[in-house]
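Journal club prep — side note

Before the paper discussion, L.F. wants everyone to see what a predicted structure for a comparable chain looks like in token form. Sequence:
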Amino acid sequence: MDREQIKEIIDEEIAPKLRADGGDIEFVDIEDNTVKVKLKGACAGCPMSQLTLSNTVENYLKSKIPEVEAVKPVQ
């Protein structure tokens, strides 16, 4: 799986949507088809952040890169 492609999708397609609501997301790593991200801004500590990760970030990445199995937050 191409790290640069994942980073580009997060930076250019997902992050701007989160920034519109005061949040942000940063690509950290990929391990065993699991993308690790850091939530920032309003997303960090938000009670809805897990829902955002699974329903928005994970589903979007899976639609673009079928090899992605999961998206997990890291501190």
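L.F.'s comment for the group: The mean pLDDT is 93. Keep this in mind when we get to the figures.
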